[in-house]
Design goal:
This protein has 328 residues and is α/β, with parallel strands linked by helices. It folds into two domains: 170 residues, Bordetella uptake gene, domain 1 (D-Maltodextrin-Binding Protein, domain 2); 116 residues, Periplasmic binding protein-like II (D-Maltodextrin-Binding Protein, domain 2, 3-Layer(aba) Sandwich), CATH 3.40.190. The chain contains 14 helices and eleven strands. A six-stranded mixed beta sheet has the order 2-1-3-10-4-11. Strands 7-6-8-5-9 form a five-stranded mixed beta sheet, with helices on both faces. Helix 3 crosses helix 12. The termini are far apart.
Amino acid sequence: MSTRRSLIALATVLAVSSTIAQAQTPAEKHLASDKFTLVVPFPAGGAMDALARLLADGLAKRYDQATVVDNAPGGAGTIGMGKVKRAKADGHTLLVIPAGNLTINPTLMPKFPFDIQKDFVAVAMLATTPNVLVTTPKTGFKNVNDVIRQAKAKPGSLFYASTGMGSGLHIAGELFKDQANVDIQHVAYRGSTPAINDLMAGTVPLMFSNLPTVLPHLESGRLVALGLTDRARSPSAPDIPTLAEQGVPGVIVPSWYGLLAPGGTPPDVVEQLYKDATEILAQPQVREALKAQGMTEWNMKPAAFDAYIREETARWAKVIQARNITME
């Protein structure tokens, strides 16, 4: 009897396993066949890195596969982008990347080495967050007007850091200079961590950053927020005014992060990855983790995301050309 029960139990398990296997789509079976590598074209420690690790953890659990986050900084993001472009177009090597690399660099960089629409496939919009101008208590700046007064009294004496040449944060700084009519020098860093380290050490007095990266330092008092580069205040930090509220309109540069695959990745695999990413980011615990860092998930299907990249590229091209913003 015991043997018969064991055989029945085994048959039941096999039947359930067979049903589960049959329920998987070909794209799901394919994605479960190998490990994932999520390339982040900036150093570890920033908001984008945190987002990539949340997504990597979700993919690892969903497909029971090892998942690696590969931080590949340098070349204003082009080194990491090149890794993904050259990767096999099978959905196992993906790019987690901010807006600026997709929509600003193609115009700003004289020899931009990619054709975004041909070399990559838009998979999903992942999240969005406001950007913020910050300083340290040592500077004595309490608001944006303090910065403007000093910049006008001593043109060229102030410096602002960003996460890299051609980043959205670089453009935010250039728009701020234009709208406030001040001369402030740009210092490009290879990622947020070294920029914040120099900011807190007093090497540079100002920095344009995305909110999640600096939020812990704002809460601890080590940094001071001067103004958001967005249309409205953030639910994660409602006490921080926008630049527009302080008399500097026209600096509307939020950050967003997207997921891309190598060009030629099969449409069914792209669609499955979109479903996976949006379901992972919609989980309550993931939403809370994003909110704690000042981010909000942003669901956009592959075709809509592709169109949005095109629209934003055209928008920023007009801004860059009209203001004669160049790679220094």
